[in-house]
Amino acid sequence: MGAFPGSNGKSFQGIAKRTLDRLQTGECTIDVVDPVLGNGCVTPTAKGITWVPIKTATNAAFALGIVRKILEDKTYNATFLSCPNYQSAFAGGFASYTNASHLVIVDENHPNYRKLMRAADAGLEEPPADPKATTPVPYYVVIDQATGQPAIHTQSDAAQFEYEGEVNGVKVRSSFLFLKDNAFEHTLDEYAEITGTSVATMERIAKEFVSHGTKASARLGFGGSATANGTTGVLAYPALNGLIGSAQMTGGCNCYRIGSKTTTDGDRYKLATVKGKPAVSAKNATYICRTQKLFSQTDEYKARVAAGEKDPKPKLPWLNVPSTSDNQALVSIVNEYPYQAKILVSWMTNTIQASSGALRDSVIEKLKDTSVVPLHIACDAFIGEHAQLADYIVPDTTPFESFGLVTQEGYWRGKGNTVRWQAKQPSTIELSDGRFASFEAFCVDVAKACDVPGFGDNAIEAADGTSYPLNDAADFFLKAVANLAFAEEPVADVRDEDVKLQALDELPAAWKEAVTPEEWPKVLNVLSRGGRFWPIETSQKNGRSAYAKEYLIQYYSEKKALNKNPYSGVHPDAALRYVPEDFCDRTPIAEVYSEQEWPFRSTNYKPRFRSISMQANSPIMRDLCEKNYLELNLDDAAELGIKDGDTVRITNPTGDVMTGEAMVRAGIARSTFGVAYGYGHHAYGAQDAEIDGTLAKGDPAIAAGVHLQTMLDPMLEDGVIYPHADSDAGSPGRSGGMYNIEKA
Ligand SMILES: Nc1nc2c(c(=O)[nH]1)N[C@H]1C(S)=C(S)[C@@H](COP(=O)(O)OP(=O)(O)OC[C@H]3O[C@@H](n4cnc5c(=O)[nH]c(N)nc54)[C@H](O)[C@@H]3O)O[C@H]1N2
Ligand SMILES: Nc1nc2c(c(=O)[nH]1)N[C@H]1C(S)=C(S)[C@@H](COP(=O)(O)OP(=O)(O)OC[C@H]3O[C@@H](n4cnc5c(=O)[nH]c(N)nc54)[C@H](O)[C@@H]3O)O[C@H]1N2
Ligand SMILES: [Mo]
C-alpha cells in the first residue's frame, strides 16, 4: 500500500531480480494498492501482480476490511497473538510479539483511565528491579491462559487476547479488542464504498494473506502516510503482520535497515564522541518544530494557566508522535512560534517546495522579511526555490564530489552499508589552504571561529586513544569507512587489480593519511566495492532474520490514547481505525467544506524519471518527460467533458489554482487526480541569476509542469499559515485533500 515497486519509491533494485523470478514461478504474488498505476517492473500485465486502485486517504479502511474478514473467519494466528512477551513468542518460533493480550483500563473514574494496566493497578507484585536498568521497566497485566488469573506480562507464556472484565475491581479490556471494535465499525460493503475497491478484493487478499503461515508481508510506503489521516494508515501494516506473526521472519516482513556502525562510535574511531563537549543536553529542550511535547507540557501552557487563562489554545499544534519534523520547523519559522528563528542555516534542502502547501507567496514573504528571519545561510549546490531566499549561499559539492555512507533500505533482508566517495575534484571554489568549499569545510570553519569543541586539530579520537584532526570531509568519512571495514570480521586488503582498475593509487594523499597504514588497504577494499554487504545466506537463521531483535507490535498505543487535542479535547484513536481526513482540531474536512463543491482528492507521487527536485536541469531527463500532467480517470473526465490534452484548472478551498494539461487514463482511481511531484519550479535554473556580476539566463523549460498546491488549515487564528497536515504527526497532507476540477 502506498509503494509501487520499481516505479517510484524505496529502492526495489536490491530485490527486483529475485522477486521477478519468483513471480514467474508463481512462488510469490503481489497486490499493489495504489490510486495510481505506476510504470515499474511491477505492472498488472506481469504474472502474479494485481493493481488495486484505491481512493486516496482510505488505506486504514482497506486494511480494516481485510482485518474484519480475517477476524470473522478466525484465520489469524491465535498462538502468536497469545504470546504476551518476546521470549514466549521466540520460543514459539516467532520473532516479534504484540500487546494484543495486554489489558487497558477502561474505567473512566480510575486515575489511570486509558492507560495500559500496570502490576500495581492489579495488586500484583513486580519482580525485583534489575540494578543495571537505567529506566524503570514497565510491567503490564494480562490474563494468563492456563490459570485464567491476572499475571504480569513477562511471567505468562500465553495469555487471553479477547478479555473483557474486571481485575482488582477495575474494568479492563485487552488491547486486541480495540482493533476488533474498529474493524467491526463498518461492514465490508461500507469499506468497499469508502475505498472505492470491492468486497471480493478484500476477501481475496484476506484469504491469501493468512494462507502462507508467516511468509507474507504487508508493507506501506510514503503513499500510506502522506495524507492528513496518515498516522492511522501506517498502523495498518504492523496490525496485519501481527495477525500472522510475520515480522522478522524469513519470507515475512523484514522492516528496518540493518547495517553496521559507520559515522558513529565504531570499532576503530569514536565519531559520535565530541571531545570536550560541555555538559549540556537537549533532553528537555523545546524543539522549534513543536515535537516531542504536548501543549500541556510546555512552559507556555503552564505560564498561561498560572496567569489565569482557563483553557489556553496554542497558536500552532504541538505533536508528540514524531521526534522531529522539518516541514513543521518551516511552519514554525514563518509563524515565529513557539519562538523566533534568529539564524536559519539550511543545507541541501528545498523546504518550501518539499513541504506541501508551503510554496506560496505568504511563506516566501515571511522568509524574505529580515524581521522574521534576521539571518539565513543556505549551503547548496544549486539556487533552488529555498536557497534563492537566503542572505548567503555557501557553495557545496555534488554527490560526485562528496562522501556518503548509508544503511541499506529495509526492503532487503540482508545487512549492508553503501559508501559513496568523491569521483572527481569538486568544482566549487578552492580555499586558500587547498580545501574546496563544501558543507563540511563550512561547519569546521564556523565551529573553529566560535570555539565549538569537536573540530580542528586532535578532534577525533581513535579506539586506541590516538587523536586525529577534523578539518575536512575526508578526515571524517574515511574513518567511518574504516569503522565499516573492521566491523565484526575485518575485510581483506584490496586486491592489486582493483587498485589498478579503479586508479585507487591516484587518490589524494590526505585520504591515506586520514587512517592508519593497516586500515588503508581495507578502506580501499570497501571503497572499491561501493560499500560492504554481508553474505545474504548469513542473514537468516532458523526461519528468522539472523538480526532479529525484540520487536513489539502495538494494537493499543497508550501514548496516542493519552494525547488530547488542545483545540477540541478529542483523544486520537489508540488502535488502527478509519478516520476521514481532518483539520488540526480534528474537525473532519468534509464538515468544513462541501464534498459536492470539492469532489476530488489528489494523489501525489514521485515520477520515474525525476527526483524530488534534482533532475529538472538535466536536458536528458527533460527529454524523457518534459512536464507532468493532471491525470484523470476516463469516467471522471467524461463526466467533466474533459479530453486528453485539454487544459484543466484545479482549485482547492484555500483559493489556490493549478493549471495544466490533462492526461486522461485508465490507471487512476475514481474521484482522484494524479500529479507527479518535482515539476512546476520557478527557481533552480528557471530564473535569471546574477553571479559575481555575470548574468546567467534562466531556462523556462526547467519550470515546466505543475506543482501541487495543498490547502491551508482554516481552523487556526487569522494570519497563521498552516498547510493542511496530519493531526497526530504533522506530516503534510500532500495526497488527499479537497479539490475541484474544470476545463480551463
Ligand atoms: N524516481 C524517483 N525515485 C525516488 C524518489 C524520486 O524523487 N524519484 N525519491 C526517493 C525518496 S526521498 C523517497 S522517500 C522514496 C519514497 O518512496 P514511496 O513512498 O514508495 O514513493 P511515493 O511516490 O511518495 O508514494 C508511493 C505511492 O503511493 C501512492 N499513494 C499516494 N496516496 C496514496 C494513498 O492514499 N493510498 C495509497 N495506497 N497509495 C497512495 C502514490 O500513487 C505512489 O505510487 O522514493 C525514493 N525514490
Ligand atoms: N508534494 C510533495 N512533497 C514532498 C514529497 C512528495 O512526494 N510530494 N516528497 C517528500 C520527501 S519523501 C522528501 S525526502 C522531501 C525531500 O525534500 P528535499 O530534501 O528538500 O528535496 P531534494 O530535491 O531531495 O533536495 C533538496 C535540494 O538539495 C540541493 N542539492 C542537491 N544535491 C546537493 C548536494 O550534493 N549538495 C548540496 N548542498 N545540495 C544539494 C538541491 O538544491 C535540491 O533542491 O520532499 C518531500 N516533499
Ligand atoms: Mo523521502
Automatic annotation (TrEMBL):
GO terms for molecular function: 4 iron, 4 sulfur cluster binding; molybdopterin cofactor binding; oxidoreductase activity. Residues 603-681 form the Molybdopterin dinucleotide-binding domain. Transmembrane segments: none annotated. Keywords: 4Fe-4S, Iron, Iron-sulfur, Metal-binding, Molybdenum, Oxidoreductase, Signal. The keyword Iron applies. Pfam families: Molydop_binding (PF01568). Residues 723-744 are annotated as: Disordered. This is Tetrathionate reductase subunit A.
